[in-house]
Amino acid sequence: MGTNTEFELQGLCHLALVCEDMERTVDFYTNVLGMKLSKTIQLPNGGQHFFFDMGCDQYLAFFWFPNAPKRAPGVASAAELPGVGDIATAHGSMNHVAFKIPLDKFDEYKAKLDAKGVRTGPVLEHDDSPRGVAEKYHDGVYVRSMYFFDPDGVLLEFAAWTRELTEDDVNLAPVNADGVPAQGASA
Predict the structure, then answer these.
(1) What's the CATH architecture for 78-168?
(2) 63 CB contacts (<8 Å, ≥6 apart)?
(3) Pairing of strands 155-161, 143-149
(4) Domain map of the chain by residue range?
(5) Are 73 and 79 in contact (CB under 8 A)?
(6) Backbone torsions φ then ψ of 76, nearest 5 degrees
């Protein structure tokens, strides 16, 4: 049973991204990440829209537009891997796509990406320290992650939860556009 009292959302149907080369995208997502290409659509403007099965009846979709603007790292997409450089992106942009993986498969999946020649960033042990990342795993780590780029510079993440999130994990008031915490807001 979900926690949404307004709508019966059943997870992510699909996330739609834009690629520069659909052939290269199909190769990466099917041969490197092992996803099944499940649906292909020819668009009226000559473009394409393809869907890849991520599992659990959820899809990652890509558009290819014949006259799409070129990519803009540091604006519309992350310019570097987390733990390596700046990952800030513009308002309204999509920063990264995180795939949930089993914790006991984390090291195996890192080795598979490495063997396939995919450049990954450092393994990040996310915790609630001021830095947000621990030097090594400890009981306060809530998720382990590794990041990598697809051929179009889409920042991808393999993330493994290490514990269940609780009400104690919600402890910050949201800030406004100036970085000021909302008046009277409580987390």
Answers:
(1) Roll (3.10)
(2) 16, 17, 18, 19, 43, 47, 48, 49
(3) antiparallel
(4) 1-67, 78-168
(5) yes
(6) -90, -15
Nearest to 80 by CA among 159, 165, 153: 153
Q: Are 45 and 64 in contact (CB under 8 A)?
A: no
CA atoms of 86 and 75, how far apart (whole Å): 11
User: What pTM was estimated for this model as a whole?
Assistant: 0.86
Phi, psi of 93 (to 5 degrees): -85, 170
Q: How many CB atoms lie within 10 A of CB 72?
A: 13
**Two tokens, residue 129:** 């320290």
Which CATH code for domain 1-67? 3.10.180.10
Condensed to tens digits (0 to 9), the pLDDT of residues 85-101 reads 999 998 888 899 999 99
* Common-topology check for domains 1-67 and 78-168: yes
Sheet holding 133-134, edge to edge: 97-100, 155-161, 143-149, 124-126, 133-134
pLDDT (tens digit per residue) in 29-88: 999 999 999 999 998 888 999 999 999 989 999 999 998 999 899 999 999 999 999 999
